[in-house]
Input
Amino acid sequence: MLTKEQVWELARTVHPYGVKVRRDLHQNPELSFCEHETHRYLATALQELGYSFRAGLGGGTGLQVVIRGARPGPVVALRADIDALPIQEETGLPFASHRPGVMHACGHDVHTAILLATAKALWSIKDELPGQVVLIFQPGEEKNPGGASLMIRDGVLDQPKVDAIFGLHVEPFLEAGRMAFGEGPMMAAPDELRVTIVGRGGHGATPHLTVDPVLTACQVITALQQVVARNVNPFQPAVVTIGMIQGGSAHNVIPDEVSFVGTVRTMDPELRRLMPERIEAVVRGICAAAGASYRFHYEHGYPVLVNHPEMTALARQAAVDVLGADKVEQMEPSMGGEDFAYYLERVPGTFARLGARAHDDAAPYGLHTSRLMVDESCIAVGVAYYIQVVQNFLTTGSVTP
Output
């Protein structure tokens, strides 16, 4: 088993490689399930490192690497997501996105760089591993049905049978060199709501001759906030957010229809089951009062992400081993969604936060923004953590006493 100094020596050795990978990917982002160039880049890189792998997974752009140690033992998996977002980059970086309207605004380029650099590091110690390491390069984290569900369908947890899985996500509000962990429900189930209000259009000067879907939609959207305020226990997290409204073509015309789209996020399975029923009741009642009709669509997204207590303790200890206890924090629950939850429904594991804020950045931009910046020193931290968590799990299979 490597010492802390040896882990860091290995992580620092592959860090320049990880930075190059990150910048290559950052310049060439691809949207969910369209990561064809990324797939080719990763396949070439893995071949150059000496690995064999399964390609074309998860809808066509996912890859799986199995690192077999010299001795039999447990199987641990590490995962990175590879897709980008439909956002126009405004960072001004010299390696900014070459693709208009597409950006790695959620840090998946960093996640992938960390995992590929970890693959490079593990190659040098693979013959010392008492077990197997599965590396999962997963497409489509940002889009239903979630690439994790498709990778699972294609057997990444069964060929070989995975005993535990670990993942991480960059956190731009947490200083680089730090990590955060939490057990239990940590991220929400993100569901999608789509509603079309159907009225009767007409001239804006004669609203009494119409059934105004604009006014009706406004009343519905306002009333939907009462679903959380008056139907959900104040101690239970829930969010209803309407993010887009579409309707109308002129300032003096009342349209026939108005549509809006939103997200509904919950942490509790029973509340999640209740939300579409309560939301549609609000839509139905207000439309009936206005004389309008409606079309209603509610789509379930990823499940709640629940970190396994024992694996969270093991992962936290791995971070303490390489960073020190003063650099490891308690993770706060988030209403964000994450398809890593699908893996955690199948095998024990945990999903951690990796600090990515530069020490001198007093006002960082958040994830999913056009100005997201990442301190690339976090790549070495991620690699060191992954090496240590692999060692800790393969040598104990549980929390180190």
